[in-house]
Amino acid sequence: MCPNSRPQLPACNMPNILIVDDEAGIRESLAGILADEGYTTSAVESGEACLDLLEKQSFDVILLDIWLPGADGLDTLARIRELENAPEVIMISGHGTIETAVRATKLGAYDFLEKPLSIEKTLILIKNAIESTQLLRENAELKKQLQTKSVIVGDSIPMKALRQQIALMAPTNGRVLIYGESGTGKELVAHAIHAQSLRKDQTFVEVNCAAIPEDLIESELFGHCKGSFPGAASDKEGKFQKANGGTLFLDEVGDMSLKTQSKVLRTLEEQRFTPVGSDETITVDVRVIASTNKDLEEEISRGNFREDLFYRLNVIPFFVPSLRERNEDIPLFTRHFLKELAATYGRRPREISDDAIDVLMRYSWPGNVRELRNVIERIVIMNPTTTKFDAKHLPPLVYRDGSRRAPRGEFSTLHQARDAYERDYILKKLDENHGNISRAAEVLGLERSHLYRKMKTLGIAVKE
Ligand SMILES: Nc1ncnc2c1ncn2[C@@H]1O[C@H](COP(=O)(O)OP(=O)(O)OP(=O)(O)O)[C@@H](O)[C@H]1O
Ligand SMILES: [Mg+2]
Q1: How many whole angstroms from 411 Cα to the centroid of ligand 1?
Q2: Pocket of ligand 1, candidates 208, 369, 371, 464: which has the most ligand atoms within 8 Å of its Cβ, to mutate?
Q3: pLDDT along the chain (464 residues), means of 10
Q4: pLDDT in tens, 8-66
Q5: What is the DSSP pairing of strand 272-273 with strand 223-224?
Q6: 151: helix, coil or strand?
Q7: Distance 338 CA to ligand 2 centre (A)
Q8: CB distance 180 to ligand 1 below 6 Å
Q9: Contact 62/87 with Cβ under 8 angstroms?
């Protein structure tokens, strides 16, 4: 049986403990004491039997004798530590030497008990080890949830290309600037880059630059000292410091004030900064991913965005397409959200008719994937007894607008094929020129304004 598929006990069960010792007397007395404390116990007499049992059952703590016939305690410990969701292991030794203790600790043993066992010490150690196992498992579970949170749905060509680009760029540590209309999944892309990067075990910290008032953003990013401005009642750690070792996601970076931009630029250049009101410089190692739904070059020409910061952030540009230009993904998204939301609301997954899907595919989705998710959530909530949704269940706006538009059909006409080719080509040139529209226009032999209009027509993310 594969160790990954070992059954987990329901959380409500009493913690259960596995005793591994070749002396029947120890097994029996330990089992008795632990049962009196309300623990569930199992006992085996060898390392092999312990590993066999772990394939069938999950434990919260293992008490493992060092001297065992066959595979000894240290070998068994090494095998246990290779299992997914392994419990903490407390080693029991009758002839404890420093050397074995060091080896066991290196192999990941939680702690040591020496024979003859002190009941009090044994019980305290077990209690702490159980807590530690539970924390480790919770942690693993959260990490898994975070990973599923960064799963990017979509089989269309632009989404496949995006996934490829993420896989390629995520491990490089390069700064990424994500362009895309509102609701296209920019934050999800940022999460996915972090989850596939070398920093995946470190923190992912997000700052929404558009949502934080101008006078607070500097303190939010860099932290402040107590009393450095009215309202600074205590010292505060900034997001750059919180993200140390990990990734900082600057959402809507185009909304940052020029003053904050210059401080961010300095921090990116020097990898260090000074909190508001402090003389102390803090050094950090942070990968910055930024996102915007604005045309930053336009903002630069208007004097709202620093050109030097733009080049710092825009090392690797990512373009998340609007839902309109990948509407072939709509059936997949719809079924994905129906399933996800049914699970959230604890209901059975519901179906949706082809007619309804047709309407959804013809609607223009100004709010992109977020709007689609909201629409599905709304129909799931509003129609609790419906087992199969039809076009009439859709919100009036979506229904009316989606029914009026001509079906888009497959990419079978010359016109559509040309659009698709142009789009790919422009994206490629934008990519080669690090997202710089002016330079891409020059290479393509177009006026910048012409390229800008073309990008809009082809649904390549630019400010509306
Ligand atoms: N490819 C995708 N697969 C699965 N879910 C997606 C996808 N794209 C977007 N979503 C979902 O759509 C919603 C909006 O995505 P997200 O917040 O990442 O968009 P955004 O571009 O950051 O939006 P905004 O510009 O408004 O901040 C989220 O619930 C997200 O999980
Ligand atoms: Mg966002």
Answers
A1: 25
A2: 369
A3: 38 79 94 94 96 92 93 94 92 80 89 89 95 87 69 90 91 92 94 93 91 86 87 86 95 91 93 90 94 91 94 91 91 94 82 93 91 93 88 87 58 70 81 84 90 80 52
A4: 433 345 899 999 999 999 999 999 999 999 999 999 999 999 999 998 888 999 999 99
A5: unpaired
A6: coil
A7: 22
A8: yes
A9: yes
> Could you give the CA distance from residue 5 to residue 7 in angstroms, rounded to a whole number?
6
Which one, of 261, 263, 262, lies nearest residue 224 by Cα? 263
- Report the distance separating Cα 6 and Cα 320, nearest Å: 39
344 contacts 355 by C-beta, under 8 angstroms:
no
Q: Give kind and range of the element (H or E) at residue 237.
A: strand 236-237
Centre of ligand 1 to C-alpha 185, Å, is 3
The CB of 321 under 6 Å from ligand 1? The reply is no
Structure token pair of residue 229: 């401005």
Q: Which ligand is nearest to the CA of 178?
A: 1
Q: How many CB atoms lie within 10 A of CB 140?
A: 12
- Quick check: CB of 183 below 6 Å from ligand 1? yes
Closest residue by Cα to residue 364 from 420, 416, 306, 408 = 408
Whether 448 is in the pocket of ligand 1, judged by its Cβ within 6 Å, is no
Distant-in-sequence contacts of 391-399, Cβ < 8 A, 24+ apart: 391/353, 391/355, 391/356, 391/358, 391/359, 393/356, 394/356, 394/359, 394/360, 398/359, 398/360, 398/363, 399/359
330, two tokens: 């709509």
Give the pair of three-digit tokens for residue 380: 């799931």
Q: Cβ(398)–Cβ(375) under 8 Å?
A: yes
Tokens 């909304």 correspond to what residue?
255
Q: Answer whether 116's CB lies under 8 Å from 134's CB.
A: no
- State both tokens at 194: 């972090």
Task: Give distance in angstroms: CA of 451 to centre of ligand 1.
Answer: 27
Q: How far is the CA of 260 from the centre of ligand 1 (A)?
A: 27
Q: What is the pTM assigned to this prediction?
A: 0.64
Q: Which ligand is nearest to the CA of 329?
A: 1
Tokens representing residue 247 in the block: 């990734």
Which DSSP category does 55 fall into? H
Two tokens at 423? 């789009």
- From 170, 175, 177, 165, select the one nearest 197 (Cα to Cα): 170
Question: Which two tokens mark 324?
Answer: 């309109």
What is the number of the ligand closest to the CA of 293? 1
CA–CA dist 360, 170 (Å, integer): 33
Distance of alpha carbon 146 from alpha carbon 308, whole angstroms: 33
